[in-house]
Amino acid sequence: MAKAVGIDLGTTNSVVAVMEGGQPTVIINSEGSRLTPSVVAFTKTGERLVGQIAKRQAVLNPENTIYSAKRFIGRRFSEVQSEIKNVPYKVVAGPNDAVRFEMMGKQYAPEEISAQVLRKLADDAAKYLGEKVTDAVITVPAYFNDAQRQATKDAGKIAGLNVLRIINEPTAASLAYGLDKKKNETIMVFDLGGGTFDVSILDVGDGVFEVRATSGDTHLGGDDFDKRLVDWLAEEFRRQQGIDLRKDRQALQRLTEAAEKAKIELSSALETTISLPFVTADATGPKHLEMKLTRAKFDQLTADLVERCVGPVKQALSDAKISERDIDEVILVGGSTRTPAVQSLVRRLTGGKEPNQSVNPDEVVAVGAAIQAGVLAGEVKNVVLLDVTPLSLGVETLGGVMTKLIERNTTIPVRKSEIFSTAEDNQAAVDIHVLQGERELARDNRTLGNFRLEGIRPAPRGAAQIEVTFDIDANGILTVTAKDKQSGKEQRITISGSTQLSKEEIDRMVADAQAHSVEDRKRREEVEARNNADSMAYQVERQIRELGDRVPLNEKARAEQLIADIRELVKNNSSDVARLRQLTSDLQQIASGLASAAYSQASSGAQGGRPGGTPPGGGDDVIDAEFKET
Amino acid sequence: MEATDENKNRTTGEAPAEIERLKEELRREHEMYLRALADFDNYRRRVERERLNTVRSGKREIVLPLLDVLDGFDLALAHMGDAPASVTEGLEALRRKLLGLLEAQGISPIVSLGETFNPELHDAVGTVESETFESGAVAEEVQRGYRWGDDVLRPTRVRVAR
Lengths: 630, 162
Prior knowledge:
The structure holds 2 protein chains of 2 kinds.
Chain A: E1 3-8, E2 13-20, E3 23-26, E4 36-37, E5 39-42, E6 48-50, H1 52-56, E7 65-67, H2 81-84, E8 90-93, E9 99-103, E10 106-108, H3 110-129, E11 133-140, H4 146-158, E12 162-168, H5 169-176, E13 185-192, E14 197-205, E15 208-217, H6 222-241, H7 249-265, E16 271-282, E17 285-294, H8 295-307, H9 310-319, E18 329-333, H10 340-349, H11 364-376, H12 379-382, E19 393-397, E20 401-406, E21 414-420, E22 430-436, E23 446-453, E24 466-472, E25 478-484, E26 490-495, H13 503-515, H14 517-547, H15 553-571, H16 577-603
Chain B: H1 2-13, H2 15-78, H3 85-104, E1 107-109, E2 122-128, E3 138-143, E4 146-148, E5 151-154, E6 156-161
Parallel strand pairs in B: 2-6
Antiparallel strand pairs in B: 1-4, 3-6, 4-5
Helix pairs in contact in B: 2-3
């Protein structure tokens, strides 16, 4: 069962994603990274390197290291003169004015280079998934013409992939946000990557996307922002120390890395410190770079770069013959859209609309491509959409608390069971109160149903074992069964509406629980403290009864006093948790004393008692929650 | 009763087609079931693998910035110049302490000087003239690289002999 992947074949970096169990997943490459540099190199020993490894040797082998192949793919040699000036490798004219890269006397088409990147991505995906990858959806910029699209498709073929479809990057981004389900909306996709800026206006209706306009700047991106920062830092340093760090290749490298890190930090913080100790040295000794940078300063340094986005956006709007008010959705793509100044510009240009940015902007295109691949491979259709229980389900236990058996957001079908016990001696029946909700106390949650299990064999409190099972089938139908393990008696109830709540209802119930979580927890603690105290009182009382005369009189008096105190507090529903716990622990100590006293007597021939100090319901797998008295 | 009989007759009439349809449906359902099983099996194995990786990547977040600090020591020691020997020794001791801490986690420096340039281990920042080293060998370590078990935690930044 081969998988179909989605590939964002970028100018600087590429990303591959796949649908798994109905969810898109970005694949981590063999170097452990989610981004793969779109770089291919041929070494002097005839080796072919792709990705990060190729990038690492670029300085040594610039004429045989191809990056930005996307700027050349499917284009004529006569069209790319300005691009050729920016690259250190040799670009020549091939047959019919085609672009060819010349390396070590051999010519390569841009398709062949891109194919290497695609092959690596597919191989890494196969390794990750543990199965073969044969089919792919590949994305291209919306402005790509037929020749560029065909060439990209050919690159896929050369890589041995069956290209299911070539889709536009902005379309993929829209798919990642599920906008294909919208009726007649206008979407703006704002894509500011490492080195290119694209803005697209799309119309969507009935699952069909139509590109109405595209614009952009082929040489504007995050790298420009980094460079601005490097220049400023170097200039400041030169003013203070009289040394130009840009002339020292090693210092420049450290500076570039520090600048990129500072830029990223300023996306969330208002101020950052750039610290490069021993960055350089002169006759007077080592020099350190230590500078504070505020977001305001960063914005000022890069204001003109941000402004350069305005023209293309306005152009796209005017080409699409719409105004900013006609835009229904805005999507941010590319790492540089994390910059706050860029985001506020986008808001300004779209009439204050809040952009979609919940999907990682570096990965959103690949994610959309994976979704498309899943649809085309029939996988999305075939996957049974597994539902989840929107709210927790459980039963009411002693003291009116809710004991959850199934937590909210558990994937169904699911089956869970737990053993409960009785709260009274010789309790003959238990009431099962089936609850739904997130609050700690039963009365704050929704009642789904009630039933009663009768005919429990007479037993001391805590001894009976009642197994309660919650079973939700694939259709969301809940069956709750209670079974007395001794007698085998069983009762059940079936509730069909447990998953059919409106979204508003669910949100309200969850928010409610969050709002009350502190007081709820406190109340639950109170109930549990009372339950534990009561249970301990019961146990010690029984122990004293069993031991009879063997209990020293002073111990007995002390225990009886503690039991009376506890009973009083429990009767009054006391909320004094500290006092309840203190009394419980005091009583427990007496219980242990009694047990060992009895034990030493028992070992000398007397009849043994039940060992004390056992927590209520402890010693076997009966859990510490009992049904309330019926 | 009559209605039931009628129903029965009708189904019998359409039996072959109905059986075919059901068979087809069964085949499809079964395939979906197998797919889900396979997905789950692969998923489980990967989760196991990723669980180990997660522990690592969590450590990585702490370890990588620590390497920066270690670099600082390397740089500082290279600049000691006329500083009193005792200061240098103290700094050396601090550096060893930090390195020891990393080594206890299975992190060790990559030995690069004189080795043939290998992009798996080395990140080239330039070339230099060298009389000591052959062309294509690492002539200078600009920033030390580190291994973590079998993985490269950070490649060594190097200058290569021309």
